[in-house]
Design goal:
Helix 1 runs parallel beside helix 2, helix 1 packs across helix 6 and helix 3 packs antiparallel against helix 4. The chain is an alpha+beta fold and 383 residues long. The chain has a six-stranded antiparallel beta barrel. The chain has eight helices and 17 strands. The N and C termini lie far apart (50 Å). Belongs to the MnmA/TRMU family.
Length: 383
């Protein structure tokens, strides 16, 4: 119970369904902010108090479990390390993977509970190969992307009571009918441990900034930067390049090389990605197909991005294609070619992002992007 309206209604529905329910609020920081600022952040003392009031209204036991040490190591430290290595992580997926459906679920199972219920908008379906994770009925609120890291074993102990609700407004209306005082509480957004939303400023306090070269794709130096970690893929402004490109067109950040401390820039059309590949992949269950053979699917690279048609396969890593961001321990990777006849190329793809694979509404699994090849390179590589 985060202290928000979604988990409040999820708990109420679980009680109404006849389950033996216990409310748990996760303390993820040893020094949480006392009060929220609008919709910024979550997991504050105020949120814990809101969750307790809902539990009292529902007549269920309520506990605060301190997972702050685990959260700091598995989510916050991982977030910093990924940026230090030139990657762009998604801490919400990591939190679901390491905290809510690992540490929390493990403790719940050890205490004799059958499942962890949350306010996520996603649907569970019992399929021929076992339990399957699917999109929520309301695609505008669908949160299956951030659940793409879950395994079949974890899904067997999950419960998402809100998955069939077609809109958030219906959830708020239901909360009001149930007398839940936080029915109109704003949704939280931004990264919970950076509540002011200034990710760059927060990282500047954690990581040293080392000046280096801005280069084009040929390696020619075209400018200087004051710290490569301050740049993002697709950035145009603030590059401080001393002279224009030969064609006179603007240049954009294409990649960041942490080992050589270089920022690579080039024309906008080089941001159009035709192939992505990466490791650290996981499946939500039996896919019912041979992953080594090309299969049709859809790929989503951000929580609120549109999925795009693709052809994916599991392949051994091509050593010649390794990059500075590539995970050295990986031996296999998922490779996905974007179907450019039916979708626009992916834009602004950065190593470290999570790509979630779908077949229809079903979540097949996910992988961490290590390589993103421009359209021309991607088509050439797949020929």
């Amino acid at each position: 119970m985060s202290g928000g309206v979604d988990s409040a209604v999820a708990a109420a529905r679980a009680v109404e369904a006849g389950h033996d329910v216990v409310g748990v609020h996760l303390a993820l920081s040893r020094m949480p902010g006392t009060l929220r600022t609008g919709s910024r952040g979550c997991c504050t003392i105020e949120d814990a108090m809101d969750a307790r009031r809902v539990a009292n209204l529902l007549g269920i036991p309520f506990y605060v479990w301190d997972f702050s040490e685990r959260f700091a190591a598995d989510v916050v430290d991982d977030f910093v390390a990924e940026y230090e290595a030139g990657r762009t992580p998604n801490p919400c997926l990591r939190c679901n993977e390491k905290i809510k459906f690992a540490a929390l679920l493990d403790k719940a199972i050890a205490l004799g509970f059958d499942a962890v219920a949350t306010g996520h908008y996603a649907t569970l379906v019992d399929g021929p190969g076992g339990r399957e994770l699917h999109r929520a009925s309301a695609w505008a609120k669908d949160q299956s992307y951030v659940l793409g890291v879950l395994t079949a074993e974890q899904l067997a102990h999950c419960y998402f009571p809100l998955g069939d609700t077609p809109s958030k407004e219906l959830i708020r209306a239901e909360a009001e009918e149930r007398g839940i005082q936080i029915a109109r509480k704003p949704d939280s957004h931004d990264i919970c441990f950076i509540p002011d939303g200034d990710t760059r400023g927060w990282l500047n306090e954690k990581l040293e900034r080392a000046p280096g070269d801005i280069v084009d794709e040929s390696g020619a130096v075209v400018g200087r930067h004051d710290g490569a970690r301050g740049y993002t893929i697709g950035q145009r402004r603030g590059l401080a390049i001393g002279h224009p490109a030969p064609d006179g067109k603007p240049r954009y950040v294409l990649s960041i090389r942490p080992v050589s401390n270089q920022v690579v820039v080039g024309p906008k059309d080089r941001l159009a990605i035709g192939r992505i590949a990466g490791g650290r992949f996981s499946l939500t269950g039996d896919p019912g197909l041979d992953l080594a053979e090309p299969f049709d699917c859809e790929v989503q690279i951000r929580a609120h991005a549109d999925p795009v048609p693709a052809t994916a396969r599991l392949a051994r890593i091509d050593e010649a294609r390794r990059t500075e961001q590539h995970r050295a321990e990986a031996t296999h990777e998922i490779v996905a070619d974007i179907d450019l006849e039916h979708a626009e190329p992916l834009l602004g793809v950065a190593p470290g992002q999570s790509a979630v694979l779908y077949i229809g509404s079903r979540v097949l699994g996910q992988f961490t992007i290590d390589r993103a090849l421009p359209v021309d390179d991607g088509r050439t590589a797949s020929a």
